[in-house]
Amino acid sequence: MLCLSDASVRELTKIGLEKDKLGRFQYWIQFHRFPLIEKQEAKKVKGGEGKFVVLFVGRMLKKKGIKLLHEVARECVSDPLMEFWFVGVGPDEDCIKRFSLPNVKFWGKVDNKELYWFYAAADVFCIPSLYEEGFGRVILEALACETLVIGSNRGGIPEVLIKLEGEIQ
What residue numbers bound the domain in which 109 lies? Predict the structure, then answer.
């Protein structure tokens, strides 16, 4: 069985799979789908001019930390320069849509071919997962667009960030 991260290997061995039966493979993205766009141009296209944009892209699930990030947005509501953008759909999207805040934009489903505009416009990408995430492809996508990433210390997230940091230096 192939896994995306050492964290996934650890999880599978906890449930009884033999470690020597588990392999790893390197995940990749197609860089041509994430062209470098000047941040201010992307903000102009997406409507984030003059704002500090915090971006979440992913399935709208509470375990992905969307409710936590929405609570952070609530704490920052008095700062007119901060915006929190949520891109994606899922069974828990109502916890974002139902409690709308002036500094939150819910974009819903966005075609994968258009995601780079969001990553490019964001000042920081946040992956606030509350569970042992196996791997976060969205981390690679954000970094491909030269967007800073803040991630939970859960599952494969820190592993991806640490390995990428080592490769970049």
Answer: 29-168
